[in-house]
Amino acid sequence: MNSLIRRGIYPLYCNTFKLSTRYFADEAVKEKIDQIVKNNKVVVFMKGIPDAPRCGFSNAVVQIMRMHAVPYESLDVLSDENIRQGIKDYSNWPTIPQVFINGEFVGGCDIMLQMHQSGELVEELKKVGIKSALLTAEESKKEGA
Amino acid sequence: MSLSFQHGRLISDLVTRKMTSLGGVVANAIKTKLETALQTKHLEVINESYMHNVPKGAETHFKVVVVSDKFDGLPLIKRHRLVNDILQEELRSGVHALSIVAKTPQQWDVSDKVIESSPNCRGGFGK
């Protein structure tokens, strides 16, 4: 009886179960990501953590955030395979890191770098009520002069 | 002695030149697809895989410099999405990192045309 279950019914049941849980898992991951990006002004999906990034591109984004002194939520995709794939599906963007501001996908490393260089990032942060440290520094320099 | 040294260097020069001009299978596919889809005015496909913890000759990490009229009027994110879409197949089947510089011919002409190499790897690849 036991072997019958193992060989016959069990795998069948298991496969259907896996398929349906897979679907629900995808939905659950999507829901989870949705909550995270909507409940935080700035979110970075990255490899590693801000204190120890495990990819040069992720590190570049962390450094940019540090320069602007942006408070942000970070998620390590290396510690959660579901999120790693889920975030790519969610934003329809094939690579990590990914930055969200105000629930909206802004871009990866290249775009963040360019926004930083062009000053656009300061403006985007301002829109969500975050004052970039670079702006503060510039202002105090002017006041001092 | 010095002759054989020179000879060796000559060969390695030749090999390097050959490698850069030929490029790999994936690099060539990327090149052809971008050229065709975007009618690029300038295109560079740089294999940066050597900077990462992957086997020699791997084609996993790329940087592309794309100059095309089709980027006219498109914000950066849409330009990147366009490139990502064209290279969808490659990104799904082994290309792991793609850094993109996307400019219009006008932007390219006034730029300093210096392409910085991507940040160093920190070992997260394949994990």
Automatic annotation (TrEMBL), chain A:
Statement: the UniProt record of this protein carries the keyword Iron-sulfur: yes
PROSITE patterns associated with the record: GLUTAREDOXIN_2 (PS51354)
Residue spans crossing the bilayer: none
Any single Pfam family the record assigns to this protein: Glutaredoxin
One Gene Ontology CC term in the entry: mitochondrial matrix
Annotated keywords: 2Fe-2S, Iron, Iron-sulfur, Metal-binding, Redox-active center
Molecular function as annotated in GO: 2 iron, 2 sulfur cluster binding; metal ion binding
InterPro entries: Glutaredoxin, GRX_PICOT-like, Monothiol_GRX-rel, Thioredoxin-like_sf
CDD domains recorded: GRX_PICOT_like
Domain Glutaredoxin stretches: 42-106
Domain of life per record: Eukaryota
NCBIfam families with a match to the protein in the record: Grx4 family monothiol glutaredoxin
Protein's UniProt name: Glutaredoxin-related protein 5, mitochondrial
Protein species of origin: Pieris macdunnoughi
From TrEMBL, chain B:
GO cellular component, one term: mitochondrion
Coiled coil: none
SUPFAM superfamilies: BolA-like
Record lineage: Eukaryota, Metazoa, Ecdysozoa, Arthropoda, Hexapoda
Protein name as annotated: BolA-like protein
The family this protein is said to belong to: Belongs to the BolA/IbaG family.
Source species of the chain: Pieris macdunnoughi
Pfam families in alphabetical order: BolA
